[in-house]
Structure formats: C-alpha cells, structure tokens
Specification:
The chain is of the alpha/beta class. The chain is about 40% helix and about 15% strand.
C-alpha cells in the first residue's frame, strides 16, 4: 500500500506530495541493513525529493545532500531514484565523476540495486553515450519516454563532451516535445569535484575567463539544464565547503539541503580521531614524512615497513584465522606525482619480495630475525582483537599471504577496476585516483605521509579519507599512519565537520544557514576550501584595471535586484560629476560596506561562465581584502544619474551589449568614464542602458537593462600576498 508523506510549505517552488511505492519498498527491502536504517534512508530520500520540482511543473531548482566520506551516498541516491520512479519522474541523469572506473562502479551499482535487467523492471538504463546522430538509439529513448511507468537512467561522465552530447539528445526534434512536464533529476555525485577554483586558477593568464576544460564543463551543465524544461539538480558531496562559501546564485548554487545519516557500523572521523577507547592512529616520524622536494627520501622509511608488516598480519588474523573477511586491503598515498607513487610501489614490491626470499632460502638466522621484527608489530595490531590467534599461528601463514599479495599502482593512466576476488591481500598505491569517489574495499591499513607545508584545506584533506567507511567488523585491525601535522588537521576537521552538520540541521534553506556566522568556523590549522585561486598571476592579469561584465541574460530579475539596491543606497550617495549640457556625464557614488555589497552582488545573475567566474572570484577577493587588508568598503557609482532617456547600446555578435563606458571629451571637459573611480578600493559602475534594434536579436529592441563595470586598483593587487603554489603539498 502506498504511503503519502506530508509536504513542505505551499509557497515553495517544489511543493508536492511524495509517495512511497513498490519501487522504493522493493529496493530498501533488498538491502542488507536493519529496519531503522531503512527508515532513515527513505526519510532522507523523501526530504530530498520533496524539495525537487514536481513532474507536472516546468521549473528548475538546485539542492544539495551532505554526507560523510565513504558513508553510503550511492545508496542514498539509488533510493532517491526508486522514490522518484514511484512519483512519476521520467528521467534521471547521473554525473558519476570524471574517471571511467567511477562510471563503471555506478552503473554496476544501479543495475544491481534497481534490478534494471529484470524482465519486469521499471527502469531502462542507457549505460553507453547516446548520440543524437544515432537514430536507432534516439528512437529507443523516444519510445521509452512514451511508455508509461518507465524511468530512463543516464549515467555519464562529468565531462563536457558527454554532457553536451546528452543535451543534444534532449533538444532533438524527436525528444524535446516529449519531455515537457516529465520530471527530471540530475544527480551530481562528488559535486564539488570540478570547481570554479581550479578553473579560475588554471585560466588566470588570459585576458578574461574564457573556455577551457573546466569552463566547458560548467557551460555544458548549463546547456543540459537549458534543454530540460523541468529538472532538479541534486548535488551529493561530503565536502560542501566550496558550495556554501562560494554563493553562485546563477545556476549551481543549492537552495535546500539534506544532511545524510550514516548507517550503523560506519566508522568516520569521530571514530578514528576522537576515540577514547581505541587508538588507531600511528605517527609517521617527521624525518620520514615524504616530500618530493623537501624530503625526497632515498630509502624505505621504517614506518612504511612497520605498516606493511601490520597489514600482512591483519590479513593473517582476519582472513586466514578468523575468517571474518575474504580479503583486506592497504592504501599507500604519498603525493600527487606519478614518480613518487612509482617509487613507493617499487619499495613495497621489493620489501614483499625480500620477505618471500627469506622463507624460500629458509636460513634459520634470517627467518628468526624476520620473525622477531614481525612480533613487534603483532603486539601492536593484536591489541584490540578478541580471541586473537597466537603470533606463531599467524606467522605460520605468512609465506602463503606474502605470495598472494597483489600490488596495484592506481594512477591517472590506470583506470581499470580492482578485482578484489583475485587475492586475500591488496595493496593500492596512488594519489588522485584514490582521492575522490574511489572505494577501497575492506581497507585496514592506510599509510599516508602526504602533508601540506602551510594551511591544509578542509575539503581537500577530507576527500583523502578512503580509510573511513563501514569497517566495524574488522575495526580492531585498522590502523592509520599519518604525520603529526596531518593528525592535528584531521582532529580539527572532525570538530569543524560536526559543527557544520549541526548548524545545517537547524535550517531548511541555505539562505537561512548562511546568516549564521558561526556555521563555517574552522580551526587555525585549516582553510575551508582551496584559496590558491587567488594567485599573483590571477590578480595581475584578471583583477587589475577595468573589467566590464557585459550581459543580456536575466534582464528582468537583475533589473529588480539592482534598482532595489540603488534605491536603498540613494541616501548615502554623493554627486561625483555634474556637467552642464550633458546629463550622461553626471554620476553619483556611495561607499558601501563590503558585506552589504557582497550580499547584493550575489543576487545579480549571470548565465555565462566568464561572468559567473568573475563574480565568484571578485567576491572571494573582496573577502580576502576585508580579512587580510582590513578593507571595509566598495565604491558604487550610478552612472548617468538622473537622465531623461537612457544611453543606447548595440548588441555585439555574442549577444551582449557593446562597450559600456563613454570616452573622454575632445575639448577636455570630461575625462571619460574610465576615470570615474578611486584608487583606495574596488569601484563598481552601474549602467542603466537601452538596447538598439539588432539584426541578431531584434526582440531586444528598446529593452532596458543594467550592466556593471568593475575597477580593481593596482594598489590592492600590489599589497596582495600570494598563495600561489605549484603543488598543494608545497
């Protein structure tokens, strides 16, 4: 029997009833979790779906689901998918990350949990890229959209080529007429992965933010959103710091949030770093903390050897003697360079082989020496194990275990999945491939000598926590080897994460959350997100001099926001210039508190990547200047104040107004709009203009709109202290 759940406030754009039907019940009943966990899973999926756009309303919204690292976010969005199927949603799109192994991981999970290959399945999964030029595939999509009760699933890579290809499918004349009022979910797994931070830094040497791989990804997401009359964009992440701090109200900023509850048996930051009963953390000595420049190391550090011994022993205890697991794994994470990972892989391979050689040569002196070394680590690894087998019993299996150890070098050019069934002992060596989204099954020992020189960033270090997860069945043999600086950072992060989650739970919308000044408090050891967006090169090339934010998008909503702002600050304004005979040269200005200006600027909407990026980076720059340089205000100029008729501008071939700023008067009576500025703070000119008839966009004839021009004084850039680095661990 279907159950109808209460709805949210009726004034929400996503107000609708949510029904628990057969698809949801069939899924959760197949999961090997207890009844309470099933109820929580459904409740949280309902909370997400009730904030989505109803299938019968053509509108859009962006929301976010915040979970712990390795806590079961995939299970959450699979349950959300089943719930969406019960509530007449027609299409679900999954951004599965940027690596093909993650795509494969998600596809297999969807097929297994949703039983997509069953003859009576309500789901049709398109696990290969559907191309608009492939008529048979387009025909299949069309037919399944028409069929009642079928839900189309599109798992794709988060890459502009794949996203644009899917957008072209939905805009094709065969599909577009069929998807109005159909209900679409876009589920973005690891939503913070392709960030404006990286894009802005990478592209900082150009005149303006133009298209590169990162901006093309964002532009393609926008393209996909435009192709879908009804859609809800759901961001799933364990590290929402960037999403909360960088308020992008244009198209990817979440409105509602759901805090996900981990299932029973989850061992996260609190368990590892705040545990009063079990000490699972082992310190890597300072002289053994690897860095390719500062401390490149020429031989295997003793802490790595100890970690390897403990891993082999953990396999002997848990897999060979107690049969609690079929296999265990170890993760070694040196840094982001291939050369470093290869060095560690060679060290590990040679160490394992040397131990094997001792057994094969069977020289008693060497065997006893090996046994003595392993005994020291047995005493450490066995300390929390109930009914632990004796050391001799474990050591008797050591040769067999060593022969079966499978070492995997996981790097950018090695995206193959790990076949966990091939060995009782897997050692994974790598960096970014192990950093995000990748699930290391049955991970017992983590060796991570990676450490930042300056402040670490909260979201980056959290994404390295593959050692979190559902490890309670073998937590007694889990160990985490870290430098002391990293141990301090993770302790501080755990406190930050718990405060963040507690604050989020108090509010329904992120607008309410953002008003709480304490919500993003961090210890001094951490930055909330990547600050190296503000590099010297970026300041010099992009946040210096005049930049015009030309746009013909969102004319009406921006007119409301900007006219309201100008009205509110009118009492603070001072006349800047008063030129008789030419009112277009009359301007007034006001000194506006930085926070007040940021609140206003966040509400100004753009739909193109360059303007969105400039807006976000300008807000970050202002926040930096306020905190580090004690800058308190921004100059806002209302240009051509009090004119009877608006200045006219043509549209350029890109559909944007042409140059906003008037030049100087030939007789010297007016210096030109570019001289309407001060040098002690950022200056923002606001232009209210009217568009001329254009052959390209004739429908804009006589339309009025606001555009901005921003001046970044050289003096502010000169005082800027660079956080630019060549390596995040540098």
């Amino acid at each position: 029997m279907n159950e109808i759940i209460s709805i949210i406030k009726s004034d929400s754009p996503a107000s609708h009833k949510v029904i628990i039907g057969d698809n949801t019940l069939s899924l959760v009943n197949s999961l090997k979790i207890d009844e309470q966990s099933k109820g929580t899973l459904i409740d949280e999926a309902i909370n997400i779906l009730k904030h989505c756009i109803s299938p019968n309303v053509n509108d859009s919204i962006t929301n976010i689901a915040v979970g712990y690292v390795q806590s079961g976010k995939t299970m959450s969005f699979t349950t959300l998918s089943a719930l969406a199927a019960d509530n007449n949603y027609k299409i679900i799109i999954y951004f599965t990350g940027t690596k093909t192994n993650l795509l494969g991981q998600t596809v297999r999970r969807l097929k297994k949990d949703l039983k997509t290959q069953s003859f009576d399945s309500h789901y049709q999964i398109f696990d290969e890229a559907v191309d608009v030029n492939n008529f048979p595939e387009i025909n299949r999509v069309k037919n399944f959209i028409k069929r009642d009760g079928m839900v189309l699933l599109f798992p794709i890579l988060k890459h502009y080529l794949h996203i644009n290809r899917l957008a072209n499918v939905f805009t094709s004349p065969y599909i577009q007429p069929l998807i109005s009022n159909r209900g679409v979910l876009i589920i973005d797994d690891e939503a913070d992965q392709s960030s404006f931070n990286t894009f802005a830094k990478k592209n900082s040497g150009k005149e303006d933010w133009e298209e590169d791989e990162y901006s093309r990804t964002y532009a393609s997401i926008l393209n996909l959103k435009k192709s879908l009359p009804n859609h809800s964009y759901i961001q799933y992440t364990a590290t929402p710091q960037a999403a909360f701090l960088i308020d992008n109200s244009d198209f990817l900023s979440p409105k509602y949030h759901t805090v996900l509850t981990p299932g029973k048996g989850y061992t996260g930051g609190k368990f590892f770093f705040k545990n009063q009963e079990m000490n699972l953390i082992r310190e890597i000595p300072e002289d053994e903390v690897y860095h390719y420049k500062r401390n490149p190391l020429t031989d295997r550090p003793s802490s790595l050897i100890s970690a390897l011994r403990q891993f082999v022993l953990s396999v002997g205890i848990v897999v060979y003697k107690q049969h609690r697991k079929d296999f265990l794994s170890m993760m070694v994470h040196p840094d982001g360079l291939k050369e470093s990972n290869e060095k560690f892989a060679i060290w590990i391979t040679n160490t394992i082989q040397q131990w094997i050689n001792v057994f094969e040569e069977n020289i008693s002196t060497y065997v006893e020496m090996l046994k003595s070394n392993f005994l020291k680590d047995y005493e450490d690894i066995a300390i929390y194990v109930n009914d632990c087998p004796s050391f001799d019993a474990v050591f008797d299996n050591l040769y067999d275990i060593l022969l079966r150890v499978h070492i995997h070098l996981i790097q950018g050019d090695a995206e193959k999945d790990v076949d966990w069934s091939t060995s009782p002992a897997h050692i994974l060596v790598g960096a970014d491939m192990l950093n995000r989204g990748f699930t290391v099954e049955n991970l017992s020992i983590t060796y991570m000598p990676r450490s930042s020189k300056g402040k670490a960033t909260a979201d980056t270090i959290e994404q390295r926590c593959r050692f979190f997860g559902y490890k309670m069945p073998y937590i007694d043999v889990c160990r985490l080897f870290l430098p002391i600086k990293s141990i301090t950072e993770y302790n501080d992060y755990v406190e930050h994460e718990e405060v963040l989650r507690a604050n989020l739970k108090q509010y329904e919308t992120l607008a309410e959350f953002s008003k709480n000044a304490k919500a993003m408090v961090l210890a001094d050891s951490l930055n909330p997100t990547r600050t190296n967006i503000l590099s010297q090169k970026l300041i010099r090339d992009k946040l210096y001099g005049w930049r015009q934010m030309l746009s013909s998008d969102c004319m009406e909503p921006n007119k409301v926001v900007i006219s309201k702002f100008l009205s509110e600050i009118s009492s603070q304004t001072t006349l800047f210039h008063d030129y008789e005979g030419n009112p277009n040269r009359n301007h007034r200005f006001a000194k506006i508190d930085i926070d007040r200006f940021i609140d206003f600027f966040k509400d100004v909407k753009y739909l193109d990547v360059p303007n969105i990026t400039r807006k976000i980076v300008t807000i970050q720059y202002l926040s930096y200047l306020k905190e580090k340089e004690n800058l308190k205000f921004v100059y806002v100029f209302e240009m051509a104040y009090g004119v009877d008729s608006l200045q006219e501008r043509k549209l350029n071939p890109d559909g944007k107004p042409n140059n906003l700023q008037m030049g100087h008067a030939k007789n010297g009576s007016y210096p030109g709009d570019r001289e309407i500025k001060f040098e002690d703070s950022i200056c923002v000119q606001i232009y209210h203009i009217e568009l001329k008839d254009s052959l390209l966009r004739a429908e804009f004839h006589k339309k009025d709109l606001y555009n901005l021009a921003i001046y970044y004084p050289q003096s502010l850039g000169t005082s800027f202290v660079s956080t630019d680095t060549t390596d995040e661990d540098e």
